[in-house]
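user: can you give me the structure for this one chain? tokens are fine.
assistant: on it. calling the predictor now.
[tool input]
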Amino acid sequence: MAHNTDRTAGLATMLTIALFAGLTACAAARTPAQSPAITVTRPADRTAQASAQEREAQEEARERGATGPTSVWDGVYTAEQAAKGRDIYRRVCAECHGTGEAPAIVGNSFIRRWFDDGLDVPFTKIRRTMPDDAPGTMPEESYLDVLSYMLESAGLPAGAEPLTAESSRLSAIKVVEQGGAVGAVPNFSLVQVMGCLMQSADGAWALTNSTNPLRTREPGNSTAAVLEEIGELPLGTQTFQLPTVQAQHLALKGHKVQAKGILMRNPAGDRLNLTTVQSLSDRCTP
């Protein structure tokens, strides 16, 4: 049974990292070499506090007295948009994303992939990287239609008002589980946490006094500036079992660390299949 769990954990790591990296894989293979590099304007590392941009957008909405949908469950696109998006997907996107050449972008994985993001994130991603041979060349309306189809394919309801590209509105519409509010990070998400790297007497490794898991899109090491910021945050109360700890991380026993990995929720205790561990301090005092 333990061997099956380890194999599942390994597959989860490869599949999740491939999922985050793969949306641009098809583009890299087909786009001419002279095409400009594409950068998605979203921070790779997230802390417990909202970004300044998100806070500004929320403040602006309050000052205007603005009201509107706050989650993808509020009917944020129209059925007509989704129908047009389905046609575009079949003509332009399915060649890669419907054949396994690139990760699937439609279906019930939408919430897990974009959880806790505003709709501005997937919209920016597809607008800047699609179609694979001519990124960003479709009309803005077409990208909105494709995003609407992605929402429909995930089982999210249509509404009476069309989805628009207004950045403040898109960023205010959060991708969450049904129920409205942002909840626990879904199983098999790539996350980052901070805690104490400890080893028990029986040799089992765990991350104790850990913060709650936060989504990240970058499985590798964080920059020194990010580590400095995270290191100022308080420890938490969570514990994550660590199925494997790489040899280069053994010297970090007892350190306060930032860890990234695949979250595996389990009634017997949540686990973290590590992708990287970085020291924040050689001491870890709750």
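assistant: here you go. The two ends are 34 Å apart (CA to CA). Residues 190-281 form a domain with the OB fold (Dihydrolipoamide Acetyltransferase, E2P) fold (CATH 2.40.50).
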